[in-house]
Amino acid sequence: DIQMTQSPSSLSASVGDRVTITCRASQSISSYLNWYQQKPGKAPKLLIYAASSLQSGVPSRFSGSGSETDFTLTISSLQPEDFATYYCQQSYSTPITFGQGTRLEIK
Amino acid sequence: QVQLVESGGGLVKPGGSLRLSCAASGFTFSDYYMNWIRQTPGRGLEWVSYIGSSGTTMYYADSVKGRFTISRDNAKNSLFLQMNSLRAEDTAVYYCARNIVDYFDYWGQGTLVTVSS
Fold first, then answer.
1. What are phi and psi of A35, to 5 degrees?
2. Residue of chain B minimizing CA distance to A98
3. End-to-end distance of chain B based on CA atoms, in angstroms?
4. What is the DSSP pairing of strand B18-25 with strand B111-115?
5. Interface contact A64, partner B, CB < 8 A
6. pLDDT 10s digits, B35-80
7. Which one of A102, B15, B31, B104 is most buried, counting C-beta atoms within 10 A?
8. Which has the closest alpha carbon to B60: B71, B44, B52, B49?
9. pLDDT of A91-107, one tens digit each?
10. What are A5's strand-pairing partners?
11. Mind telling me how many Å the CA of A91 is from chain B's nearest CA?
12. d(CA A20, CA B27)
């Protein structure tokens, strides 16, 4: 199975900050990497697919980059509604696997 | 708009069975692959099972293979997960999720399954 490791596990930041979350795959996954946002009590919501493509309706302050084994999710200017947990997910091979999550908290 | 609504969760004893359902609306269900994904505080998000659009191709996580069966009824826009021989470690919120290309673009709200004596 492909292991997905996110860093940091948690992060404190302020409104307006630029934030970067990293996801590393245990083997090359090309660009088969997706990012989700989850708020408490809610289902995950797709933000970025294929490493860098913005899902329809997602604000442009969210961006993704990377390939092979190293990927990043960047929020250019944090808004109050962005405080949530973020997950990466690989779709290169079955079983599909997720990172452990990065909890983004208000400083 | 796209809606996925899970049902069928609840409390079941170890070794018991449960059948989850997911009612889909707002899109042509028969055109899409579907999945079950579960989440626990300890293990995070775990993909459980996939079914192709026609229902003839299925995949399972090793942790549920031989115990869980995914199926669908395209005429009724419904997805199912039959869970047998349940274990404590199957306790989780179970989500159904629509698969488009290589990602999950819509998720249901989840249904809680608790396996406990």
1. -120, 140
2. B45
3. 40
4. unpaired
5. no
6. 999 999 888 999 999 999 999 999 999 999 999 999 999 999 999 9
7. B104
8. B49
9. 999 999 999 999 999 88
10. A24
11. 6
12. 34
